[in-house]
Amino acid sequence: xxxLEQFIVDRQQELADATGAFSKILRDIGLGAKLISFYxxxxxxxxxxxxxxxxxxxxxxxxxxxxxxxxxxxQVMRKNPHxxxxxxxxxEDIVPTNPNGKYVVLFDPLDGSSNxxxxxxxxxxxxxxxxxxxxxxxxxxxDFLQGGCAQVGAGYVLYGTSTLLFYTTGQGVHGxxxxxxxxxxxxxxxxxxxxxxxxxxxxxxxQLHEWEPALxxxxxxxxxxxxxxxxxxxxxxxxxxxxxxxRNLLKGGLFMxxxxxxxxxxxxxxxxxxxxxxxxxxxxxxxxxxxxxxLLEVPAEKIHQRTPLFLGPASEIDHLxxxxxxxxxxxx
Length: 332
Ligand code: AHG
Ligand code: MN
Ligand code: MN
Prior knowledge:
Helices cover 29% and strands 25% of the residues. The protein is of the alpha+beta class. The chain folds into two domains: 4-191, Fructose-1,6-Bisphosphatase, subunit A, domain 1 (Fructose-1,6-Bisphosphatase, Chain A, domain 1, 2-Layer Sandwich), CATH 3.30.540; 200-325, D-Maltodextrin-Binding Protein, domain 2. The strands form three sheets. The chain has an eight-stranded mixed beta sheet, with helices on both faces. Strands 12-11-13-15-14 form a five-stranded mixed beta sheet. It has a two-stranded antiparallel sheet with strand order 1-2. Strand 1 and strand 2 (61-63) form a beta hairpin. The longest helix is centred in the N-terminal third of the chain and has 21 residues, at 21-41. The protein is globular and about 55 Å long. Bound molecules: 2,5-anhydro-1,6-di-O-phosphono-D-glucitol and manganese (II) ion (2 copies). Residues 108, 111, 241, 273 line the site of one manganese (II) ion.
């Protein structure tokens, strides 16, 4: 049995920085995940369900567990000397921490908040960059706006039937399962690849009528294919990006959260939902887009910037792009 720590140390030389600093950040992300998992598992017993009575920068009502997860993750990041600062879905601005740190971390401390009180899996999403501002000084916004291709680490934690941690540092996607008896994440999914064919499709069609006509034509095509397919794709959508993505990563599936006429940028956040999930998708052999270009190429302009998000097997994404990007697949 290989623990997360051992796995990271064994592959230390592959990392951009073999000083061990990056490994210690990954280890602490595992610590943050264990702490959140502990409280989540007891939520209805420890009176940490329901709304906190605050509204966050996103204009959303903050769930008690959103706040608790953010507090726990922030504390772990503050205590790591290699983290120079962090950005969180639940923090309006970037949070400078240790000026001598070399990395910045962005995270969605609790993804799928609408599912917390109804026992449906939720998650945490994280994304790591090397800072570009001079060491010894407070981090700047530019450290967080380097763009998806500059990530040096990305991953998620899924608080589901078990607590799973999946991450990439650019050498494939690797998954670990928390063994509560030992308090350790153990390697259970080495070198994950997304199946080439789509078994599932995941989207909320409550605003289908507001999607761009080309995307509506893609959905009609998807339904038409299902009518004749020997194995029709099934709709699976739980409303937690991490849970929907994880199932589609292991079984093959398309996830999409498009923009609408009123909200062309969609709902999901580019920096701490889109980019990390897009990198994981590509590292697992899939493709990620905003409906026009590769998601990782979408420029980062603001910390809480939103983006339309499409993640899935390369063939399904190419087919979708042949509708939405008005380019034939050959030129993609
Ligand atoms: P968060 O709880 O961090 O705000 O994220 C929720 C997101 C994402 O997890 C999910 O895919 C999406 O919201 C679901 O949105 P709808 O309920 O509008 O379908
Ligand atoms: Mn989220
Ligand atoms: Mn969240």
